[in-house]
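Why predict the complex rather than its parts? Because the way molecules touch one another can change local conformation, and only a joint prediction can capture that. The input here totals 900 residues.
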Amino acid sequence: MQNKKYTRREFIRNLSVTALGGMAIPLLSSCTKEEAEDFLQKHFREMTEEDKKRVISKLEQRYLQKYGRKFQISTKEAVPETFWGYGLELSRCIGCRRCVYACVKENNHSRHDPQLQWIRVLRLKRGNLINLENSEHYYAPDLVPEKGFIYLPVQCQQCQNPPCVKVCPVHATWQEPDGIVVVDYNWCIGCRYCIAACPYKGRVFNWAEPNIPKEEINPSVHYLGNRPRMKCAVEKCTFCIQRVRSGRYPACVEACPTGTRKFGNLLDPDSEIRYIIDRKRVFRLKEDLGTEPKFYYFFEA
Amino acid sequence: MKKETKAIAFGIFLLGFCFTSSANAAGEEFPVAPPPMTEGMFPCSSCHASLEVNRKKRELKEEHTQIKLHHAETMRWCLDCHDIKNRDKLRLYNGELINFTESYRLCGECHGPQYRDWRAGIHGKRTGYFMGSGKRTYFLCAHCHDPHEPKFKPIKPESPPFLPTDKDKEHAK
Amino acid sequence: MEKLRETLNETWHFYKKTLILVAQGSKAYYGWCFLLLAIIIVGFLSYLKQHEVGLIATNMNDQVSWGLYIANFTYLVGAAAAAVLLVIPSYVYHFKPIKEIVILGELFAASSIIMAILFVMVDLGRIDRFWHMIPFVGSMNFPQSLLAWDVLALNGYLFLNLLIPIYLLVKFYYHKEPNWKFILPFILLSIPMAVAIHTVTAFLYNGLPARPFWNASILAPRFLASAFCSGPAIIIIIFQIIRKISSIKIEDGALFKISELIAYAMFLNLFLLSAELYKEYYSQTVHIAAFRYLFEGLHGHNQLVPWIWAAMTMNVIAFIIFLIPQTRKRLATLNLGCLLIIIGVWIEKGPGFVIPGFVPDPLGEIFEYIPNSLELMVSFGIWATGLLIFTLLMKVAIPIETGKFTHTEYEEKISAFKTLLKKSIG
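Output of the joint prediction:
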């Protein structure tokens, strides 16, 4: 009797230990070396200058290996006395989606599996503006604009009172001093609570490792902006943080063929965006939700 | 005495220069892109300097036949904007001649609100740097609106995003 | 210090004994455990695939970014909260029939919470970054983020529902009187904790103005009402199974008392549902879209419609069964009612709650979501894990409760001899 008990206990013990060990091995091996190194990386806001330099050089090496290009990764901080605002003239948007693909190229989006786009252009029937339930996202006519329709591009609105920042359980997303809401891609745990919280569908998720064609990669990146991301991290429009902090227009502003998109510093009274707010009839989407977006729509016709 | 007169004359000349400069100042402050001329067309005077001037309003049959004027064509024709004597210049209402690089001043004579908005940067297109000393390029009216036929033609849109269910089809692209 | 050392020694000895206990059992027991292990292994392998490729292996996407995992999580947190319906009668009202089985109920709550936590963990995109959520080590966004509150509440409740039963069981094992001064505060704390975990889970949906289907103040009361139906219903069924296969005596009176409470909870659930339906269908604002999608179908998309109507029918029938004393007090109809509630509330609170929150999405897009086989495998794996843990806990708890598994006099003498030996050597 005693022996039987002993062997059974031993058997159970050995079985559970081997099972645990056996399960751990595939789990650990599925982590690439990259992920093992990234495991202990600090939150970007807690990094010292040295930490940042180290992380940057590690990333530069990695990108060189992966994409064959020398990357310039900036960690440039917000320019003092700047607060970015965006203007979009609805009467001029023709729904051509050039902004969408300029953004995709500039910001190193995954092209397929999954396809990620930060800008989404909605087509609405004339006579209807606010009830987005009747919008069409997948219109594909031969020519735009189509008669009887208007087009409404939507992207992250860089809210002043961002619901996504409020709900993130790990502080992976926050608002920078110049008003841009950014994500530390290496800190995000992929819970997707922010995607549920965003009223504008501004945030998208890397459901798998991104697929970026090597020849289309953009090597001038910002750590918090358009550097190539990894699987299972959230991303969103950053007002082209890599451009605006040096004073350049975002890629979508430059790509629009009808001059629909306007950008500027809300704190500068001579800026284009202040001109718009002062003289045109501006509105913001879903203002009743109290998010205080910095994306102003206006129109004349 | 002579010295004083010289000084006064010089001062008046300077003042006059300043006034005329300010009249032209509007034209000089915008870093515009080169005007969108057809290849080999400019300078126009290479042909027109030797041609006879015909002020009669007519449809052109020999040259410039590809230009269809759909821009207040009931009220004016080519020579109301292009200067008669010097085809390298455009003509404002008051007779002033301007370069093609300042063509916005001509457009602004009728399209005042758009011109004001363009000067502020909220009409039309600007690329490059908006802050600091980096290079910036302002697009002329003519870059987006063909001055002879300004209405935008519809263009082909880029492809729509993949449907969420199209996971397999994505591989093709 | 000496007392603590003694307690730890006792607990360690107890643990070693329980290992022997769970390793022995009837053929049916082994069969059941190995079946669950098989399901767990399949689920785990599927999870490994998901971990390797990323969440693209599931059917979730940017439009419907939470799916089967979070649906199950919501349901299981509710089931765990239901243990409070056993704790209150036994410790506050000293209702004897329930007092005998309250420990089993708390262990059920612990298994349920473990399942809920596992569901959240498999839903995370980057489980290797889980340490970012730990306060002070990572950077937990407390108190702004409701998910942070949820982590604390769930782990706190799990801790309570493991501490209390295990403490009491160890004391029973050693024939010692539990120190009620020590344990009663924890027990009384578990009552508001149970309400808290489900309220926090409701608030995490409630606080999103982007999702009008969830942004309703009625959410927290509805969650509690449906939790107090479904959890006890599972408990009633499980206790009847336990009663049959082991020697523990569970009085019918206990089951009937619980079912009375279910009747009240189900009434509240149905009433709150009608209040929501009235508000949406009478005001007819744009926000009715999600309700239309759920109950009628929207623009031709009507996948959830048969499910929700089935759930509604089941809930109403179950309510009637529980309302009428004759049907409530007959075991056959009682069990039918319980099964109807378990399935009905799962549909209503799981897919019927999470998915319409995403349809239509904030930009008006409608995308229907069905879980794929990988998600189903992982979900089954986690349910099997919870069942296995519960089985093992019951395998230990029931013999202790019935007095069959105790620290015998023979063992007492052995351990006294061992301590004497240690003292003489050391």
